[in-house]
């Protein structure tokens, strides 16, 4: 792609991700463009751009965490093509159904992580970036005509852990599936790591069996890509304490915190969770310490679009 000037770029977002879109725009030195959105009595939704987008390079920031946000993201992509945008570039901060990237043999279940991502790709964006995917399988759910990038936040995670200034800590993965990722973080921090023994026995139910004694006498930093209901990560924290950990700190990029998860954390003595602002509505409060991925995303977009200010 040739160099473009900042005046050629419009950055917008679906409604759920406007706060993150604004942060990214500020990092890039751009004005954030909020689409006009109205609701009709029968439930239909009107969208329009407040300015002409023909010939422009459009950036859409969007989480697809629920059906309405997913559909709005697709509407915006298709709308940009209809209005003759030059390129459509998408940043999916949180991909809904991302844990459903495969179907168990004989189950007849729909792997919605794949099928929903295909719906986004079929809207023909030129570039799609995902942040800390649960599985990279979704990156290949297109016919080879979409440029994709997986944005890893490892450097941001390492930076946040270093800010804690802990002298004696160990990184813990809640299961073996995330252990390679946690091992990579541990290598960047020159710290030990281990993984919990976890089994899933229902859609939202897991059982964590044990954690190695390497946590004995140390602060256990339990790292995962997301916290949804909190069940497995709370169990992991309890097993770490039983194995001799002097303290536990929870980290996850995507802070979904569904249902009564906040109350669960309080009941189990979890006082602080560190995570990113990828999931809509997550802000720092008495439980959460939230940092922004905006600087990292802005740097990726600057390289992708080769912006000349």
UniProtKB/TrEMBL annotation:
SMART domains, A to Z: Pribosyltran_N
Keywords, alphabetical: ATP-binding, Kinase, Nucleotide biosynthesis, Nucleotide-binding, Transferase
Reactions the enzyme catalyzes: D-ribose 5-phosphate + ATP = 5-phospho-alpha-D-ribose 1-diphosphate + AMP + H(+)
EC number: 2.7.6.1
GO-annotated molecular function: ATP binding; kinase activity; magnesium ion binding; ribose phosphate diphosphokinase activity
GO cellular component, one term: cytoplasm
Domain Ribose-phosphate pyrophosphokinase N-terminal: 10-103
One Pfam entry name: Pribosyltran_N
Record domain Phosphoribosyltransferase: where: 151-266
Biological process terms in GO annotation: 5-phosphoribose 1-diphosphate biosynthetic process; purine nucleotide biosynthetic process
NCBIfam families: ribP_PPkin (TIGR01251)
Similarity annotation: Belongs to the ribose-phosphate pyrophosphokinase family.
Stated name of the protein: ribose-phosphate diphosphokinase
């Amino acid at each position: 792609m040739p160099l473009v000037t900042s005046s050629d770029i419009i950055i917008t977002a679906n409604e759920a991700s406007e706060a993150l879109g604004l942060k990214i725009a500020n990092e890039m030195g751009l004005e954030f463009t909020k689409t006009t959105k109205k609701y009709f009595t029968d439930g239909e939704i009107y969208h329009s751009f407040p300015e002409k987008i023909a010939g422009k390079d459009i950036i859409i920031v969007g989480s697809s965490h629920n059906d309405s946000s997913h559909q709005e993201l697709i509407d915006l992509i298709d709308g940009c093509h209809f209005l003759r945008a030059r390129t459509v570039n998408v940043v999916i901060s949180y991909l809904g159904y991302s844990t459903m990237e495969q179907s168990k043999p004989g189950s007849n279940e729909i792997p919605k992580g794949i099928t929903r991502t295909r719906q986004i790709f079929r809207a023909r964006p030129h570039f799609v970036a995902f942040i800390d995917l649960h599985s990279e399988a979704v990156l290949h759910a297109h016919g080879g005509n979409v440029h994709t990038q997986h944005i890893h936040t490892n450097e941001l995670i390492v930076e946040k852990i270093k800010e804690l200034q802990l002298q004696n800590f160990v990184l813990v993965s809640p299961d073996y599936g995330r252990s390679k990722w946690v091992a990579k973080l541990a290598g960047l921090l020159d710290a030990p790591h281990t993984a919990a023994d976890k089994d899933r026995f229902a859609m939202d139910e897991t059982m964590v069996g044990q954690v190695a004694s390497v946590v004995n006498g140390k602060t256990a930093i339990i790292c995962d890509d997301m916290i949804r209901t909190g069940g497995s990560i709370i169990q992991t924290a309890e097993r770490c304490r039983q194995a001799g950990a002097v303290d536990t700190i929870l980290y996850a990029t995507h802070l979904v915190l569904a249902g009564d998860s906040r109350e669960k954390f309080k009941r189990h003595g979890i006082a602080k969770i560190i995570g990113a602002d990828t999931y809509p509505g997550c802000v720092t409060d008495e439980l959460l310490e939230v940092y922004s991925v905006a600087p990292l995303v802005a740097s990726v977009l600057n390289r992708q679009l080769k912006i000349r200010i």
